[in-house]
TrEMBL record:
Organism: Bordetella petrii (strain ATCC BAA-461 / DSM 12804 / CCUG 43448 / CIP 107267 / Se-1111R)
GO molecular function annotations of the record: acetylornithine deacetylase activity; metal ion binding
Lineage: Bacteria, Pseudomonadati, Pseudomonadota, Betaproteobacteria, Burkholderiales
Entry keyword Disulfide bond: no
UniProt signal peptide: none
Family recorded in the similarity comment: Belongs to the peptidase M20A family.
Peptidase M20 dimerisation domain: residues covered: 212-323
Protein name: Acetylornithine deacetylase
Protein keywords: Cobalt, Hydrolase, Metal-binding, Zinc
Encoding gene per record: argE2
EC number: 3.5.1.16
CDD domains the record matches: M20_ArgE_DapE-like
Top-level enzyme category: hydrolase
Amino acid sequence: MTQNGIPSALTEEQVQRILQAVDARFDAQLAFTQDLVRIPSLREQEHTAQDFLYEAMRKRGFTMDRWQIDVKDIESHPGFGPVTVSYENAFNVVGAYRPEQQTGRSLILNGHIDVVPTGPAGMWSRSPWDPAIVDGWMYGRGAADMKAGLVANLFAYDAVRAAGYAPAAPIYFQSVVEEECTGNGALAALLRGYRADAVIIPEPEENMLVRANVGVLWFKVRVQGRPMHTREMGNGFNAIDAAYAAIEALRRIETKWNGEHHCHRHFEHLDHPINFNIGKIEGGDWPSTVPPWCEFDVRAAIYPGTTADEARAEIDACLREAASDPRLGGTPPQVTYTGFYAEGYVLEEGSDAENTLQQCHRLAFQSDLESFTTPGYLDARVFVIYGNMPTLVYGPKSLDIHGFDERVHIESVRLITKTIALFIAQWCGVAPSPA
């Protein structure tokens, strides 16, 4: 059902059939999500979870594409993030649904399979890989960020089919790696040729649409010291003390950039959108030796419109200038870029895709869709900046992602799935399923 190539509005009967189909399969959806959470898909270990999703997509009759990311294929692209680990197990999976005849608009349903480390397991209420459902929340590493969203994409499609309809345009179900560290998985999928008229990424975003988010740089700072026995400490040079001086210099950039928030659209109301996180630090060799080295890892945010190269130049200059601090002994720290090298993005208002999402959200939630700006990284920047595709980052409520007892809100997942199912039907158009 189309008008001038654009699917017409869903009928009340179609809406109700699709909503009821989500409800009918929701217990199965939760069980599938739990099975996926039980598979630890940490960096360099994602392949087993990808195998699980590959088989689930294959059983749905999709045309399957599973490939190992080759750094040589993507490293010359401006959106590439430097790689410091093996990609031996870095596989992307895409399942393609294609109708016999296309009359609607195509869609990418994207999500990432990789999860962040758990931290000390003893600080969790239960095993990070035990996806228990307690008081309306599903627990587990990756339950919220973002396996519930990945599964919602599949079960939203299932609901459309179970309601008796066949989408009338291609849909590409993408499960990508490396979202938590480089964004290279989404970039590899783009460069492999996957494009569509719109993209949905159901990250855990509190039932809201992301209007804008920051870019991110990862880098390692290394400071050299001069070892001495501690009885002659004054003749040595303490690299750990020097590292604190370098961190203070970076904090000055962080303060400066946060002071400019009013100059950046959609960030005017945020007092501290730019966060420099010292995520890891180590140094020294022996308690009774003045430490000869120290290095720390930084995650630094940048505003949309600032290129990674521009931000890097200011960071590098800051650390060179910091060498004048006596604690650094006149030697600039060594800086190595180790992951994210990503620009931020803004989702411009008024696209057909956003308008469709607003309509579908209202039908599912019985309330208006809100949008917000996040100081976090999202793979949407790949599709928006380099693919020129309207990309809707929109997903369920969560608590403590990247922390202990990460969890996702069950009823929120149900309603988000309903929204995505309605979006598939409205955006792609539907025809009666073949008998």
